[in-house]
Design brief:
The protein is built from 13 helices and four strands. The chain is mainly alpha-helical. It has two domains: about 180 residues, no CATH class; about 140 residues, no CATH class.
Length: about 325
């Protein structure tokens, strides 16, 4: 794709350092402190560094090829060690937490290993994706983060899930075509603008007609816009695009021997993954709108070959929803 550049590792490192510094000032300014907080921030910063740096300059793919799939099993142990340091450093160590974390980390790795080095899209690959997504979706991981309380449960669970997915599929499985990189430039920006605009033209009238959303901008939401937008991108859009586009759509396209078939099927699954959202089941309106959105996210991924533009479209949709509309 012409007019596209990749973010360098040094630029990603600078963004990571700025983000971690800002987060540290924020939590200290809200009265948190002490050894436990330092350990917690260190663990979250480590997980975030892996998320960002491995996507810069195709660093993740280059490291995975250099290490090799067999030795990459050791990479899967790294997130567990980081979590173990968090437990010990915050005096939160319990054996049941260790067992749950170890099971969550090792199950997808063992599943892809059992599939051997065959064609991507084996049944073990899909079970591994489910083993990563389902515990997070059902909130089984929330109890793993007792300190400093509910504020980091979601962030900790998301960052852990991303690191498990990267260890499993980027390093051990060495799945190609994930598009786990950060691209920017004229063509990527144009793709984001086109897909977001078309999606807005479709989803806003459809959501209004279905009595799912109502135009209701709130001043309070605008005041918290920068922090909310970054949180939505890092903790919702990025991980979901990694799972549903980089892993699922990518693998389904191989299984079905059809890029279009994989794209549409992954979009439907993406929609169904939202069927229990907002405390309603079955929430068909949400599932339908998420399916339509997934079609545009998936097309962005196909056009750019990267989850980054798809995640930006995703984040723009969720941020616009948060700022300008109320869910009915």
């Amino acid at each position: 794709m012409s007019g596209v550049r990749q973010l360098s590792v040094w630029a990603a490192l600078g963004l990571w350092a700025a983000g971690v510094t800002a987060a540290a000032f924020y939590v200290v300014g809200h009265g948190y402190g002490g050894h436990g907080l330092a350990v917690t921030l260190g663990m979250l910063a480590f997980f975030l560094a892996a998320q960002l740096l491995l996507a810069a300059g195709n660093l993740g793919e280059r490291l995975a090829r250099r290490v090799g799939s067999r030795r990459s099993v050791l990479v899967a142990v790294v997130p567990f060690l980081a979590y173990l340091i968090y437990l010990l450093g915050t005096n939160s160590f319990t054996w049941w937490r260790v067992v749950i974390a170890a099971t969550y980390l090792l199950t997808p790795v063992l599943l892809v290993l059992s599939g051997g080095v065959g064609k991507p899209g084996a049944w073990q690959d899909y079970l591994a994706m489910l083993a990563i997504f389902l515990p997070f979706k059902l909130r089984w991981l929330n109890g793993l983060w007792p300190y400093p309380g509910a504020r980091i449960e979601y962030a900790g669970a998301v960052l852990l899930a991303i690191n498990v997915a990267l260890a499993t599929f980027l390093f051990v499985r060495q799945l190609d075509g994930m598009g786990y990189n950060i691209v920017w430039g004229r063509d990527a920006a144009l793709s984001v603008a086109i897909h977001f605009s078309l999606l807005a033209v479709i989803v806003i009238p459809l959501g209004t007609a279905l009595h799912f959303i109502r135009f209701d901008p709130t001043v309070a939401h605008w005041k918290s816009l920068p922090g909310d937008a970054i949180e939505i991108f890092l903790l919702t859009a990025w991980p979901e695009e990694l799972l549903f586009r980089g892993l699922l759509q990518n693998s389904l396209s191989r299984t079905l021997s059809s890029g279009t078939g994989g794209w549409i099927t992954a979009s439907v699954i993406f929609g169904l993954a939202h069927i229990a959202n907002n405390g309603v089941f079955p929430n068909w309106r949400y599932a339908l709108l998420a399916t339509v959105a997934g079609i545009f996210y998936g097309r962005t991924w196909r056009k750019t070959g990267s989850i980054f533009p798809a995640a930006i479209v995703h984040a723009l949709v969720d941020t616009t929803w948060h700022l300008l509309f109320r869910t009915l």
